[in-house]
Amino acid sequence: MNQSIKEYIVSINSAIEQEDFGDKPQELYEPIRYIMSLGGKRMRPLLSLLSYQLYKDNIKEVIPASIAVEIFHNFTLMHDDIMDNAPLRRGQQTVHEKWNSPVAILSGDVMLVKAYQQLIANSPTEKLTEILEKFNRCAIEVCEGQQIDMNFEEQEQVQEADYIEMIRLKTAVLLGFSLEFGGILAMDNEADQALLYQMGVNAGIGFQLMDDLLDVYADQDKFGKQVGGDIIANKKTYLLIKANELAQGENSIKLHDWLKAQDFDNEEKVNAVKSIYDELHIKTLTEAKMNEYFEKAFTNLEDLDAPSEKKNIIKDFFNYLINREQ
Amino acid sequence: MNQSIKEYIVSINSAIEQEDFGDKPQELYEPIRYIMSLGGKRMRPLLSLLSYQLYKDNIKEVIPASIAVEIFHNFTLMHDDIMDNAPLRRGQQTVHEKWNSPVAILSGDVMLVKAYQQLIANSPTEKLTEILEKFNRCAIEVCEGQQIDMNFEEQEQVQEADYIEMIRLKTAVLLGFSLEFGGILAMDNEADQALLYQMGVNAGIGFQLMDDLLDVYADQDKFGKQVGGDIIANKKTYLLIKANELAQGENSIKLHDWLKAQDFDNEEKVNAVKSIYDELHIKTLTEAKMNEYFEKAFTNLEDLDAPSEKKNIIKDFFNYLINREQ
């Protein structure tokens, strides 16, 4: 990874560590410090810094503002984990498991307010309304995406276009806002701000498709989670949606039977579904769709009115992420 | 009730009815429309209008802004009801009962963002930062109050001062903000803005003490809920905290036994605890404390630099609320 990106991540982590989230009652503030300390890639604030550096050099000045998107992201994780009954987050107990659901609901609520506080305290007054309007829209869309995702779990069939729209809302628009936010803080070129947003959305859809792929095709030694977890849980990923769409005859019956199976050996199910995916060339199809979105993101990047050497930092970072786990 | 107040409430209700909260996915937006349509006194937006009319006449203009505090209030109700496992809200099913907890968590999250949207879209740009900073502080304090209230239920003893601080946070600061908000929208007199906030906080503490009293001493025919509900649930109200503090000898043992009792007849418990309250003059003590806060609120009102006939509208409204259910 590029040296300046490593330095950005160190600065982001240090700013998060020094953040005074609050004190009493401790049941409210300890979970916030806990989830914020679990790490992660710090992708969203990093994206704000990366778009800012396209236009300006004084990166340190926007680190406090960038933390807002990380707080917001962790608020969504804390609440999503309750809704999804998830026991673990980044290999550690989730907040509702370590404490309880009321604590996770309320700490999450406070985090959402803290995200606004962080945004408001660190945005220039003359751009505050614009920033908040865009942030509000993004925040609502993320919630819409989560609800649509939950709805999908109750549905027999999901269409490809609906799935792409769901991941756009649930995951991609926040990457879009994070990049756009850095751009708004740096300059006034509205065409570039819109391109930054589009780049984030396109890359975000690409990264989610990559996550869907990795769940099935990752190297178990390098992968943080159990390979095949989505298959075991019948999670409606791009791969399953595509397989449902394309499977015919015996494959369709086999896939359907595995989706309905109650008692099964995990490994057997993963291998069986995977071999259906292979016969249907699901990996290739997903890679094609993923690359289509990455291509769009790279085109957005090229179209920006910024120095090539600065754009290359973002290009290299995306390529690093794309190649890291494959 | 004063004719202009009735008109304000009609205008508030009509603005809420016309509000376009959103459409799809319907699981996210129907619960918002549902809880917002359950009614209630619309006390918080009404307070914003009442403080605004002290200084300006064009009340209609601030109705959209005032709706923000009602949306925020209903967000807290939706989430509190999950945490408190409450089956009913204003006599109707709570959102997590009618739908489910994930829906109530996520719809609540969207409502919090919608409260910000409503505030941002309807506040003058030059006052936006100030308004948002005060709103953020208030929102966080309301969450702190809810957490402290939940903590109290796990504690053997609660001190009077801690209880007053809890209800200040959980209930009173939002009434304070609602009044201050109307003041900020109307004028620039910071001393008056601070007095409006104080008036709301003092009145809010008074109203909560009144609620505690009514739960035990209300006329069942007029009271919306079951009289004695707090006693049955061992809810740590001002009355119980005061009784715990003052009970000695046999009264102390009896009270303690009733608090520990597992199987009991509801009516018998309510009557027994009530007779301990009576022996300890808890009603008189609570009324004295409540009136102390109402007096403070009325002094705050008197100190405002506004026309007496306008102040009298607020005075009459508070007196109407104070005398209505007693």
Tags for this entry?
two-stranded antiparallel ribbon; 1% strand; mainly alpha; Farnesyl Diphosphate Synthase; homodimer
Tell me what the structure shows.
2 copies of one chain form a homodimer. In chain A, β1 and β2 form a beta hairpin. The mean pLDDT of chain A is 95. Chain A has a domain at 1-122: Farnesyl Diphosphate Synthase. Chain A has 326 residues and is an all-alpha fold. Chain A has helices at 3-18, 26-36, 43-52, 63-83, 95-98, 101-121, 125-154, 160-186, 190-217, 229-232, 238-246, 249-260, 266-279, 282-303, 308-324, and strands at residues 88-89, 92-93. The interface between A and B is large, with 37 and 37 residues. Chains A, B: This is Polyprenyl synthetase. Chains A, B: Belongs to the FPP/GGPP synthase family. Chains A, B: Keywords: Magnesium, Metal-binding, Transferase.
Quick structural overview:
The structure is a homodimer of 326-residue chains. By secondary structure, chain A is mainly alpha-helical.
- This entry's quaternary arrangement is homodimer
Beta content of chain A = under 5%
Placed side by side, the strands forming the largest sheet of chain A appear as 1-2
Low-confidence stretches of chain A at least 5 residues in length (pLDDT < 50)?
none
Q: Which structural class fits the helix and strand makeup of chain A?
A: mainly alpha
Label the CATH architecture of the domain at 1-122 in chain A: Orthogonal Bundle
Shape of chain A: globular
Let me know the average pLDDT of chain A. Answer: 95
The number of helical runs of chain A is 15
Which CATH C-level class of the domain at 1-122 in chain A is it? Answer: Mainly Alpha
